[in-house]
Amino acid sequence: MLTFTRGLTTGSRLFAPDKYYKITRYAKPLSKVSYKAGDVIPADRKVSIPPNKRHYPLYEYETMFFKSQNRGLYGGLQRTSSRTCSESGNKNLRSHKPNIVSSSIYSEILDKVFKVKVSTRVLKTISKEGGLDNYLLKDKPARIKTMGKVAWRIKYDIMKKLESDSLPVIEGKRIYLAYKGHNVYVGKNKLLSYLFEYAKRDTYEPITESQFLATNSWKDIKEVCQDLEKYSFDFKQVSV
Amino acid sequence: MSANGIKRRLQKDFSRLNKALRAQETKSNNRMVLPYFEQDYDLVPKHEQKLDFTQVGLAEGDLVYITKGEHKGKISTLFRYTPEFDTVYLSDVSEKKVVPPTQWFEQQESHLIDYPQQIPRDHVRLAAKDIDSAGKTYYIVADAVVYKDKYYDDRYKQWLPKRFVKHHESIEVPWPGPPTDPKDGELSTDEQVALEKTYEVQSIAIPPVPIGALDQLRNPHSKFKSKILTELDARRLTAPEMPLSKEQKIYLAKKAQQPPTSVKDLTEEMKQLIGEKMAQHLNQIENPYMKIHLDALSKNTTPEFEKTMKLIRETQELNKAEEQK
C-alpha cells in the first residue's frame, strides 16, 4: 500500500544558513567566457588582453572586502563588530580584528618555506591537518572558500608538482610525453630550442629567438612535438 | 591623480547638481553680488542644452510674441538665443542696468544703461506677419509648431524641416534668413575651391585607394574597431585550470561508468490510486465557478511536466527496442 507525504520544505536544506554567505555573496565576479583564436570582440565590449600569460587559475572566492584576507591565510576570518556599553549606558561600536601573525610555513612537497600572514586559528588547523600541504590539498568546499587567493596559488604549485612527480621514469629519466612511440624525456623549452633551429632556416627574412618565442612559446609540449614532426625531426635524440 | 584632476573634483560643477541644489547655489552666490548683476535664470545642464535652432523652434530673425512679464503682448524680433540659460534676447526689449564707473565705456555719462533683457524661452511664442487681400498687415501667433517634410535651404546650406502652426497645418511659417552673411577671414577657403572636384571615381570595381595603403590611412588599432583575437591573445585571456586531485579523478571515472538515470512510467495500481484520491477530492467541490476554474487549469501544461513525460516516453521506447532484440 502506498502512502503520500508532503515532504516539501520541512527540515529542507533550503533554509539552512550558508556559513560562508558573505564570501560567496561579495566575491569578485569572474567571467567564464572561453576565448579562441579568431573570435571577434566587438568594439563596444571591453576585453583587456593581459600583457603576459596567466600563470595561475582564477580563484572564485576572492573577496571584495577586508582585502588583506586575499593576501594571507585567514581561514575565512573577517573583521566583526560589537557594541561596548559604558556604565552610564552609552553604546559605541567597536571592531574585532582576527589575530594575524606573520609566520614561515614549510611545504614538504615543494620543499619551500612560505613567509605569509596567517591567522592563529589557521596555524592551529594546519598543525591539526599535519602540515601546509594537507591543509591546502583538502577538497572540501569550505576549505576552498576560506583559503584565500594566496593559498589557492600555493595549492596550484603543489598540484603541478604532484602532477610532474607522478610522470613515469624510464632508465632513470623522467618521461614528459609519450609521443607516437617516443618517450620524450626533455621539457618544452629544450624542444623549442630544437624547433627554432628549423624555423630560422625556414624563413626568407631572418628571425631572432625572441621573435620566434613570441609566436611559439604559448604552445604546449605536444604541439611543439607536432611542429617538430613536420620538419622530420629525429626524436631518438630526445627519447628513450 | 594630477593636480588638475584634483582641482576639478573639488570644484563645484553646476551641471552635476539637481535643480533644487542649483537654485540654492545661485541664491548663495547672489548674496555677495550687487543686485543688478544677480543671476536670475537657472543654468541648463550641458546635456540638456539645445544647440541646434531647429530644436529650439526659433531662429535668429524670427518674430516672437511675449506672453508673460512686463512686456506681455509685445511683438519683437529675436536676435539671440542663449542655450546656457534657455533664454532669448529681443531687439526692442531692454532693461536698465547699473554699471560701476570702472566699467564705463567712452562717452558714457550715466550709471544706468540700456541692456537687452533676457526673456525665458517659455515666455515667448513664434509670430508671423502677413498681408490680407485688402492690403492690411496682420499677425499670427503660434502656440506650438510642428515640423513636416524637409527641404534644402540654400541660405543655411543645410536640410531644414518645414514649420507649420499646430492644428492649423495649412499655415506655414518659413524660416527667416540667416543672421549675417559669412565674411571671409584669414583662414577661410573660397567656396568654389572647397567644392572643386579634382578626382572622380570611374568604377566601383576598382577601389580609389590601393588596399595596401589602407592601413596607413586608417588606424588598425583603433578602439572603435572590433578586434579579432589571435592565438596569443586567446591564450593570454584564458587562465590555466586547477588540476584534478586523485579523489576527484576516481569519482569522475566512477560516475562515467554509471548508467544514465531512467524514469519509469506509473503502474496501473499507482494510476488508479491517484485517480481515486483526486476524484474523492474533486467530488467534494460544489461551487460551479471553482469547477470551471479547475477545468481551465487542467488544460494548462507546465514545461517541467512535459519534460518528465518526454523522458518517460523515451525510456519506454528504449526498453521496447531492447526487448525486441
Automatic annotation (TrEMBL), chain A:
<keyword id="KW-0689">Ribosomal protein</keyword>
<dbReference type="GO" id="GO:0005762">
    <property type="term" value="C:mitochondrial large ribosomal subunit"/>
</dbReference>
<protein>
    <recommendedName>
        <fullName>Ribosomal protein L28</fullName>
    </recommendedName>
</protein>
<dbReference type="InterPro" id="IPR026569">
    <property type="entry name" value="Ribosomal_bL28"/>
</dbReference>
<dbReference type="GO" id="GO:0003735">
    <property type="term" value="F:structural constituent of ribosome"/>
</dbReference>
<dbReference type="InterPro" id="IPR037147">
    <property type="entry name" value="Ribosomal_bL28_sf"/>
</dbReference>
<comment type="similarity">
    <text>Belongs to the bacterial ribosomal protein bL28 family.</text>
</comment>
<dbReference type="InterPro" id="IPR034704">
    <property type="entry name" value="Ribosomal_bL28/bL31-like_sf"/>
</dbReference>
<dbReference type="Pfam" id="PF00830">
    <property type="entry name" value="Ribosomal_L28"/>
</dbReference>
<keyword id="KW-0687">Ribonucleoprotein</keyword>
Automatic annotation (TrEMBL), chain B:
<protein>
    <recommendedName>
        <fullName>KOW domain-containing protein</fullName>
    </recommendedName>
</protein>
<dbReference type="Pfam" id="PF22682">
    <property type="entry name" value="Ribosomal_uL24m-like"/>
</dbReference>
<dbReference type="InterPro" id="IPR008991">
    <property type="entry name" value="Translation_prot_SH3-like_sf"/>
</dbReference>
